Amino acid sequence: IVLSGGDDRVWKTWGFPDGNILLTGEGHTDWLSGCCFRPSGTQLATSSGDTTVRVWDLSRRGCTLTLRGHSRAVRACSWHSCGDLVASASTDGTSKIWDVNSERCRYTLRGHEESVNSIEFLPFSSTALTSSADKTLSLWDVRTVSRL
Questions:
Q1: Contacts 24+ apart (CB under 8 A), 135-141
Q2: How many domains does the chain have?
Q3: Other CB atoms within 10 A of residue 65 CB
Q4: pLDDT tens, 83-92?
Q5: What is the mean pLDDT of residues 135-141?
Q6: What are phi and psi of 106, to 5 degrees?
């Protein structure tokens, strides 16, 4: 299965190698910048120009959670390997770590001088990597909200 999202505000799952559309989801009010599967494969997260991250349940075929807190477009999202945390990177210069169980922002990562364009968790760790338009990369310990 391949996952995609785009300017049409819709995410799609595609069967591979046939290329047939299996599922679609709508709900964002602006372009999609990122989409990724939860490690369990039962849900996915999407990030958007509408400043939100959404969590979708594939069995229910709908959005189950909208995460709000960025003041500008969200450029990327990523699941932690535990499956309970989603990270987001925004053009507002911050990244956020969201707890999907409590449905709240657990941490806000501040320190980049410009747009944060990507965020990824290192596998099986509390470390996240961000990249920014300020031409820097940062490693973060998300437990202490500090740069490494």
A1: 136/112, 138/109, 138/111, 138/112, 140/95, 140/109
A2: 1
A3: 16
A4: 999 999 999 9
A5: 97
A6: -85, -40
Q: Peptide bond preceding 123: is omega within 30 degrees of 0, i.e. cis?
A: no
Domain of 57 in residue numbering reads as 2-147
Backbone dihedral angles phi then psi of residue 79, each to the nearest 5 degrees: -90, 145
Look up the pTM and report it: 0.93
57: number of CA atoms within 13 Å, CB side?
Answer: 7
Burial of 29 (0-12, 13-18, 19+ CB in 10 A): exposed
E-assigned strand segments in 27-103? 32-37, 43-48, 52-57, 62-68, 74-79, 85-90, 94-99
100 neighbors 84 (Cβ within 8 angstroms): yes
Nearest to 83, CA basis, from 33, 111, 119, 124: 124
CATH for 17: 2.130.10.10
